Amino acid sequence: MWNRTENQITLVLIRHGETKSNREHRYLGRTDEALSMEGIRELEQNHAAHKYPRVDMLFTSPMRRCLETASILYPDMCPAVIYEWAEMDFGAFEGKNYEELKWDERYQAWIDSDGVLPFPEGESREEFMLRCEEGFRNMLERINRERKQGRKLQTIGMLVHGGTIMALLSRLYGGEYFDYQVPNGEGYLCRITEAVESVRITDVKRL
Fold it and tell me: Where does the pLDDT of residue 195 fall: very low under 50, low under 70, confident under 90, or very high at 90 and above?
């Protein structure tokens, strides 16, 4: 599928811009929060400085903060939405930060598990990673359909959440989940390569 040089795919993974909850270090999952003014300004500055590569097709999470980021960084593109890339469901911890949770026994148990336990009333890391991988494969199917119609798609943009990036890279490249934390507006460049009956991410480097 992607073995020949002209068919190889470069991925540009970008975490959405900063929101108010991000600035306050709150768990921001299913709350559909907009970008903050500071987040918008930072993205605009990065865009003006040509920080982000040009892409042939753009995919995004369905959440407002990602869609707004896409409109700032790639204003002339209409992104395809991957619904499985919505941020993790943090359940009872949603909207709270460490100071508000540090005396909660459920939170301490979650920390002691290195984040492996499911969030109370929310998702587990494993459930989230599987969901993100399903979305990734849906993206690849869309790319293949477009290529069969004659589109030359070599560089693909992904406007997603920090959790989505961590899930996909740890699952399809290797390493630990938290190895791939990035600030808002930052991300990674990588490639997709074919393996036997699977697709892997390779050549990962920071933007």
Answer: low
